[in-house]
UniProtKB/TrEMBL annotation, chains A, B, C, D:
InterPro entries: GATase_2_dom, Ntn_hydrolases_N, PRTase-like, PRTase_dom, PurF, PurF_N. Residues 24-243 form the Glutamine amidotransferase type-2 domain. Keywords: Glutamine amidotransferase, Glycosyltransferase, Purine biosynthesis, Transferase. The lineage of its organism: Bacteria, Pseudomonadati, Pseudomonadota, Alphaproteobacteria, Hyphomicrobiales. This is Amidophosphoribosyltransferase. Coiled coil: none annotated.
Length: 500, 500, 500, 500
């Protein structure tokens, strides 16, 4: 089940081209008079998890309201005219980078359905590994699907559940889902949060003015001055409900028991914001530790430690502190890229220009440079950045990567290239990789080095503490769609293409 | 079942304010290499049937494509970039003026669903009088509805049908629908057209380069040089299918038999374009005949016959020819209204100015004027236009209306005000109406006069030849939603409000 | 001095393609609290004089404000946010169709200059026949020109005048200008209006709430309920000034004496709105009279009189009344053309479709048709409309034109094609023209027939009562630029091309 | 002569609020087939010098072309449709942050004038200290000014010069100008560059494919792979001319001799990009040196060195290296701010949220923090950032500023607040300032410390090596407008307000 890879339009002219993409951030709040404004702010803090589109659904006691827009949260959702269309004290929101399903407003979450018991809106981050199988079953029994989003499948399962309460229907539905997800849902009285049984995708609970909040990362609490309460546990469903007297009750349910949590390592390596705390661990510290361990595992004689901005900076700081080699900003980032440069003309591409980054020649010329990057996927960017260093006069260019080599696809919401496009699968050994990218030396952090950096202990092969299949091939869940080859029936997906 | 009335924003400053609105025009074509372009042109010719939004769905042998836009067809659908997103040799399109369901892109037709047998797209003009009842039943059995459009109900009925062929499923679905409709649908190989059992809404079949076309009015055939074949009969379903060898087969089915056709009189009075031929009768001639009959029924001593543009012009020509009173353009229309004037500021409203029409003083001053209008709904516009004539120096102002008084709501796709807002229901007799609007005399065409103008014979009270309930109260179908009070459950509709 | 002809983009798909274009309408008001709103409304009523761009300048006692926009007045100027940027009790405005000077916001009037005595804004309709000669002289003495508009020349002449008062400077400047113009200007205390010595272009004075107004046509007074006072005379300058006590003084000056007025015949034939009164004569009556005279001069046996909409309608009414042949709407106009259809794709063009007009087949088929048009320029549209009539089944198609043949270019603000593109110059006689356009017969109104229709008397060859050079070659002013070949120096004009 | 201060809209919610603004970057190229594309790229690299608007003028051998747009270079200038409107092998461009003159497209540079000898376009960075005086003189002698830009004055002086060659006219004009400027100009055959006599504003010369380039900073050469040749000297004019055979000649002229260069210190402290080399000195190294010197001058006991991003980062690296205290990213920047968040609603403001920055709590809590900033202007941001650190749990917060205290206004193109708004002028001593901003300690780099960091030697009081009046009050040129109080005549400036 290979999903189509969106070959990033930025590949050829940006150092950001060769990265993985996460698709989503979620936010929800119940009982607050500024519900939609706070949701907009929370989504803004989660913008790094998805920049293609954002949506908010609110409920004002009478009616649900929805706004969906392509583009950044800050492009639309602080316009008073837009916020005014989202009244009420309950809201959930979603920001996405599209993987499954083309980008279309129709697919932008939260999705909404009218049920017999009233409306429900759902937003989720992650991916179901049996989504296509379930979709096929549902359509076979007379349902119509109007989006290509997995989330619609959840709505159908809720609608078809034989349970009577919305909570039971919701739990019934997600029990049928397999994969990694963090989900928020809104009904006429409830805000519901759910996290997958393994705890692959992150989801935290906070509080503002006594009102409950759920969001993907703690940075979305910080932006609004909310207090962190705890992580939603793996396999947990939390149901917050407004009572007739205005008070809020909180019910905790479990969809899976006795399964140890295995958070996704890539949240620490790349996705989460450095100021977030994921499953109790500082993301910044994890990255800096990775740089420290990298300096121990793969030391190098050099004059200057240069981060590949911005992802490589914490590890570079750690590497420099451990190695004693000075940390310098050898690559400068241009923050004013603008709209059309995002899709530059062929003419501009042809100049091979670097619209987003440039070498700080004064710190590079005549020096032995250690470049610190957070990860290498296909290696295409590494080639360009090494060349940029050599053009600026570097005498040696060494690459140190603060995570292990990537060999396997992700099926839990991270957009990975075809495995045969991955650098680690294209070359026999690290020396061949090093020659291909043109470096003087190349080293990756070991899997144990990364485990120690994040969690303080080596990997337990019998019961790995984290989700790490992209490095190891050990998937934490079944992969029903993949093994059932559901995707081989071309009629069942992407039948409708809609422009945004 | 009173539908919410959209109080036209133009009420206070335009002579067009006091009119009825039809919601839709439809168009479909099969097997033509320019399918989406021809659909855009056809919808443009049908633009008078709905100006709020337009949508097109095409199929290219692999995939369905859809584009939906608020605004005029000519605002979007000749942009090559837009047409390029609609490849394929099969397409259907829809242009709408919203009545049921708020205006939202989500509600813009055609609607699309993935079925087990493949995708289907549906567009329709009209209204189902049991749509809410059916929607309620469907939701009660586990379906989710994502729009507030009646058309979605048709899609659900098709998906749930126990028949196996798409054609049988489609017929099964529309047999459950009650009301007035003209519908086109597109599957992976078929273009389907269907007209309600009574034939309330119009639908014609044409041909271009040997390829079948269905559209609401003949003017959509004329614009692309297509040939008129015949009207789709009341209660008929026509299925055109592309065969593997590229040939097209045509199958004719009946959902109702032995029911005489009763086309809607208002198509002749107001909605259809004057150059269209509806159910075999020239719309222009019908209107001119109405003016001739009006001059016979309600003659008046006057110096000049002035049409209320543009609807009253054909009747005014007939009235002038019959009466011998000269026809003159006493009211001039400004064609350049622009975007923001459509919603003028309070300051501009306050000037009471006429942004779209003005008196041609030289033809009015010192004269006895007969104004010819196509219809009077609430009378609000009549007041303004009579005042405009007096301000320009008319010595007498007589109103002659080329249709009978309107007493009843429509439930078949025409947006009518609350019955108690209708002029005919607010005043005891025609003299009181005449005083209210400020005219020197007022007369309406009789129902028999209109029947003769359109069909050549008086009304047959036992079996009326036309749909005429707005004048007579005799509805041609059941009104299940109205009598079942389905709308009284507030949770079941309009739960989600979405901005366009 | 041949101006570049803008080959209308509509040529190939609209009946409006073969027309002349006027470039401007002007409006000004002094001392009214709703100055900019009234100016917007006045410009809206003058929209038929130019649809490419509109601008307004206001003054609030401290500062001048300007807004310029491409597009219709109603697209921008009733947005409260736009009107709020134009505060003050004095304003002038301009709506333009571009001829001289490319279309660029830089060229959109009113133009403004800071003078030593304070700012001045100027808007004008018309064209200077010595504008390029003066521009050359000015640049030679150290001025810089930032637009390609003739109006900038007026500003330079005002700035350079040796007179001290602004009024004297203004009169000094326009005394140097030659050609046809109607001008309004705004200073910190004054509203000034000026009309060329021959009175080619129209300009009227009105009053609202005791405050003076100047505008191109009376229809701009009617829209705001203002009272018509009188025409600005040919060669007259009227200066309205706000006094410190708030009262308004009015001074009348003459730049030319004892020159009889010769208004432009084309205002009556084509440009002015039918409800306007130009130089005391109803435009609608003039056109209808032209139709009556045409029926007398060139009668024809036919079944139906069909106007070419909308310009030919009044003449067709006159022709029908005089001839006794019935007047019918044989051509239907689509009012919903939209934005992108204005520039249709090649694909749509290729269908040869008529996006704006269609034949009303029921009134044409089997009939002898007399088409009445207001004018024929190149004949390209006539070919298409005659073909459209034949396609709809007309047995004969006769063309009657309510103005004489056009042989000569205009230099006073009307955009005329190269003389050798004019139908009248391409064929030896009227029979050849008739064959070229494909009609069964063709006739034009005589020059005396037009003079009588407009002014009640035949043309006086010694002192023609109207400006009529396009028909006769007799220009009412010098043509300095043309004879001096100023335009032959390519460096002096159009050096800068700016996109709007 | 106090210029109106644009109170930054970001003051209340961003750490970037309390900064100075430079108004412009310039770029020009001659003889290259991709002239306008290269100009767009160069302006993109100079985007940090001005983000409000950008303009390009090109010449194709026949005609000049111009495009001006509000917003970022990358928002408009890689659209192929826009670049296609700028043909030719010669172009100049400009990116601006507005100070003098309201922001209006009319004021966006390059400005263009038709002269007798042909057209000329001019773009400049800087400000004339006698611009208003000259403008007044010019208007008094009959010129008209259409913008409020100083650059228009240069055009007038060129137009009025008694010299015959364009080069001589240009030099004649700039010899009359006083102040700080870096200018590029384009005629039909020449690209001209000029730098003010003192060399306040930067301007460098480069070469690509043998074709000359001028631009504000070397980073604009790097982005297109061009080679740095040399700085344009203070008081130098360089004229590059295309010869009829296609070769390019280069002429060097001097408008001032024997004046030592005094580049603006603030280019090193704040404005220039860290990877640029200004007057032969690496900006990054100068900033890092300032941090080193700051650690020597004002050491502090602390646990962590935290840069105020992004300006304070190089100095923080230097401070950390010198002091041995670890450098950590204690403040995280959100790069996805979007359009509407730039002007947040009152509701969002009220949350006191930080849309662009947040504390990295894990690195701050329980620590003694040294914040390193590049400069302090009013101190408003310092208050917020110190509070943010305390909220995140810092036990002590020390501020070290890598430049001296600012006491005086700039008149050479930097937008400074009223002197009495400057922190240094509001409090008696540094202890009072420290209390006001809420820090535990506060220290600024000394003027000698900054001179040494940038130039390697202490300040020479008799002949200062740099422009440093904002710190010292010693202005390097006359301030004619200021002392002549030209601005006191309210009629002479800003008479026309135009919306962009």
């Amino acid at each position: 089940m290979e999903r189509p890879v969106t070959h990033s339009r930025e590949d050829d002219f940006s150092l950001d081209g060769d990265t993985l993409h996460e698709e989503c951030g979620v936010f929800g709040i119940l009982g607050h008079s500024d519900a939609s404004t706070l949701t907009a702010l929370g989504l803004h803090a989660l913008q790094h998890r998805g920049q293609e589109a954002a949506g908010i659904v609110s409920f004002d006691g009478r009616q649900f309201y929805t706004e969906k827009r392509m583009g950044l949260v800050g492009d639309h959702y602080t316009d008073p005219a837009v916020l005014a269309k989202l009244p009420g004290t309950m809201a959930i929101g979603h920001t996405r980078y599209s993987t499954t399903g083309e980008v279309a407003l129709r697919n932008v979450q939260p999705l909404f359905a009218e049920l017999e018991a009233g409306g429900i809106a759902v937003a989720h981050n992650g991916n179901f590994t049996n989504g296509l199988t379930l979709r096929r079953q549902i359509i076979a029994t007379g349902a119509i699907c109007q989006s290509t989003s997995d989330t619609e499948v959840v709505l159908h399962l809720i609608a078809r559940s034989r349970h009577s309460s919305t909570t039971d229907r919701f739990i019934d539905a997600i029990r049928q889902m397999e994969g990694g997800y963090a989900m928020v849902a809104l009904t006429r009285t409830k805000l519901i949060a759910a996290r997958d049984p393994v705890g692959i995708r992150p989801l935290v609970m906070g509080e503002l003015d006594g009102k409950p909040i759920f969001c993907s990362e703690t940075c979305a609490l910080d932006i609004i001055g909310a207090k962190y309460i705890r992580d939603v546990e793996n396999g947990e469903v939390i149901i917050c409900e407004v009572q007739p007297d205005g008070s809020i009750t909180i019910e905790e349910r479990k969809t899976a028991r006795n399964v140890p949590e295995r958070p996704c390592l890539f949240e620490y390596v790349y996705f989460a914001r450095p100021d977030s705390v994921v499953s109790g661990r500082s993301v910044y510290k994890a990255r800096k530790n990775a740089g420290i361990n990298l300096a121990k595992e793969a030391p190098v004689q050099a004059d200057v430690v240069v981060p590949v901005p911005d992802g490589g900076t914490p590890a570079a700081i750690g590497f420099a502190q451990q190695s004693g080699i000075p940390f310098e900003l050898g690559i400068i980032r241009n923050h004013y890229v603008g709209r059309t440069f995002i899709e530059p003309t062929q003419q501009i591409r042809a100049f091979g220009v670097r619209l987003k980054h440039s070498a700080n020649r004064a710190e590079i010329a005549g020096k032995r440079v250690v470049l610190i990057d957070d990860s290498i996927v296909r290696g295409t960017t590494s080639i360009k950045i090494i060349q940029m260093m050599r053009d600026a006069g570097a005498t040696e260019v060494h690459i140190r990567v603060a995570s292990p080599m990537i060999y396997f696809s992700d099926y839990y919401g991270i957009d990975t290239p075809d495995p045969d496009k991955l650098l680690a699968n294209q070359y026999a050994d690290i020396n061949a990789m090093c020659r291909y990218i043109g470096a003087d030396s190349l080293a990756f952090l070991s899997i144990d080095g990364l485990y120690e950096a994040v969690g303080g202990a080596k990997r337990n092969p019998q019961a790995p503490q984290f989700t790490d299949h992209y490095f190891t091939g050990e998937y934490p869940t079944h992969l029903t769609d993949l093994h059932g080859r559901t995707m081989s029936d071309p009629r069942q997906v992407s039948l409708l293409k809609e422009a945004g």
